[in-house]
Amino acid sequence: MAASNTSPADTNDHLVLSDDPEHPANHICTLCRNFYSQGWVGGTGGGTSIKRGPHIFIAPSGVQKELMQPHNIFVLEHANRSYLRKPLDLKPSACTPLFLAAFDRGAGCCIHTHSQWAVLVTLLVEQEARANGQDPKGKCFEIEKIEQIKGIPKGRTKQGMLGFFDKLVVPIIENTAHEEDLTQSLEEAMEKYPDAYAILVRRHGV
Predict the structure, then answer these.
(1) Domain named Class II aldolase/adducin N-terminal: which ranges (predicted)?
(2) Can you list the positions of beta strands (E) in 63-177?
(3) Among 43, 157, 170, 191, which one has the highest count of C-beta atoms within 10 angstroms of its own C-beta?
(4) Among residues 128, 147, 179, 187, which one is catalytic?
(5) What was the pLDDT predicted at 8?
């Protein structure tokens, strides 16, 4: 009998096949299609990951977001960082180290988009800082007295949602040539701003 070159990580299809639309493998595909229709991602850009129990479900790199299917999804064991399912013809998202950094701090889902609005905000904050003779590095996007922030929780360490007179603070980190190289500055921002639900990356996205 010929030996098989297939490893268990290539064949664990049961981890991603489910009739439940809320199953992470299905939900990631739905989210990616929605992000594409909103113009938040284009082509193969961006990434999404969901943690359920000990498993982390990760959208692949190199797949059009509006065409993604559950069988494209990677599954990682959170505790030991080993892949339980790894499609042979695909690569895991370059954002995986960033997702893991967030999951290590209690996140349940991570979304990375190239929203033009997010990019524009980082440029406006940079422009304002330079106009005031300040270094834009380390500056945050801050906004208050706007109705929409009432849909955002006050933070992991606080109860309730933000109010109209509260201030929403979103840290901004500097972009790097490769997404995985953002890990250290992302971790530093999450430690400095533990109640932030998003991190902006200047000239890149959220």
Answers:
(1) 26-206
(2) 74-77, 82-85, 91-92, 109-112, 140-144, 167-173
(3) 170
(4) 147
(5) 54
